[in-house]
Amino acid sequence: MKEYEIIVPCARFEDLEETLILGVDAVYAGIAGWSRSNRGNEFLLSQLRDAVQLCHSYGSRFYISFNIIPSPFEIKMAFNIIEEAVSRGVDAFIVSDLSIIERLISWGVEVHASLGTASLNLEDVLFYADMGVKRVVLSPNLSVSEIEKIVSIVQGLPVDIEVMIYGIKCSATYLGICRLSSYLEILITNSGVRTLVWEGSPKRSGVCYRPCAQEWITDGDTISFAPCVSCEIYPLEDLVKAGVRYFKIGGRGMPLSYFKNVVERVKETLGGKCKNV
């Protein structure tokens, strides 16, 4: 049995096998129209069964990141979509919305409480554990010592701790939520066809339109924010000492060469204690 799990994103089905060749333990992806990723970086619902089978052929797991928060008219469509994904054999769902978490657990599906839940303390973790969540992704705003304390207390409980070790660092983001984008409003109308009326809003965990990357003019002056960059969030060695076993790499849409370099560094640090080293 492997000691650690390395989880990486995959933007498109066409890139899946090349991602699996890196020897990762799990891959996560979004469903077209129902994820926080850009529309070109998602899987079609019709591709999920093949994606699951391909992952399993490499000894890896396939997760769906379903991080949007449905509006009242979207909730029924959201449940229909996730039911279709469940029927295609997806191994687990990464979710932030409580109604979706509750529904998936009632179906007996493995659920991971995502970064979007902003889980900051032991009480947050125990809350999701009591719901039946299998894994909680902790907020990147915690210190290593805080993570270690949480891990030590939940050992023996039926809930695992996952930590984002590489991801996008953005000057406008806190607790995984874009503070700048929350000021944007997008008109939503009930046409009954979600993808035609809504591209997503960061206020409701939808697509990020990267307002921080634009130039802003105020009182005649042009200002800009620091660009979003991918970086190491925590030293991996410190997390290993803290007892963390599940490591997520962020950056959906980044080139495969980036993930290759990161996975190689992670495997080297873990010293052969993960699969396919």
Query: Which CATH architecture would you pick?
Result: Alpha-Beta Barrel
The strand count comes to 13
CATH class: Alpha Beta
Strand adjacency order, main sheet:
1-2-3-4-5-6-7-13
List SSEs in N-to-C order.
EHEHEHEHEHEHEEEHEEEHEH
Mind summarizing the main beta sheet? 8 strands, parallel, barrel
Structural class: alpha/beta
Quaternary structure type: single chain
CATH third-level topology? TIM Barrel
The percent of residues in helical segments reads 25-40%
Count of domain modules? 1
Superfamily (CATH H level) name: Phosphoenolpyruvate-binding domains
- Unreliable runs, pLDDT <50, ≥5 residues? 186-204
User: What is Rg?
Assistant: 18 Å
In one word, what is the shape?
A: globular
SSE blueprint:
Layout: E1 5-9, H1 16-20, E2 26-29, H2 48-57, E3 61-66, H3 75-87, E4 92-95, H4 98-106, E5 111-113, H5 122-131, E6 135-137, H6 144-154, E7 160-169, E8 173-174, E9 177-178, H7 194-197, E10 216-218, E11 221-223, E12 229-232, H8 236-241, E13 246-249, H9 256-270
Parallel strand pairs: 1-2, 1-13, 2-3, 3-4, 4-5, 5-6, 6-7, 7-13
Antiparallel strand pairs: 7-12, 8-9, 10-11
Structure overview:
The structure is a single chain. By secondary structure, the protein is of the alpha/beta class. It contains nine helices and 13 strands. The chain has helices at residues 16-20, 48-57, 75-87, 98-106, 122-131, 144-154, 194-197, 236-241, 256-270; strands at 5-9, 26-29, 61-66, 92-95, 111-113, 135-137, 160-169, 173-174, 177-178, 216-218, 221-223, 229-232, 246-249. An eight-stranded parallel barrel has the order 1-2-3-4-5-6-7-13, surrounded by five helices. A two-stranded antiparallel sheet has the order 8-9. It starts with a strand and ends in a 7-residue tail after the last helix.
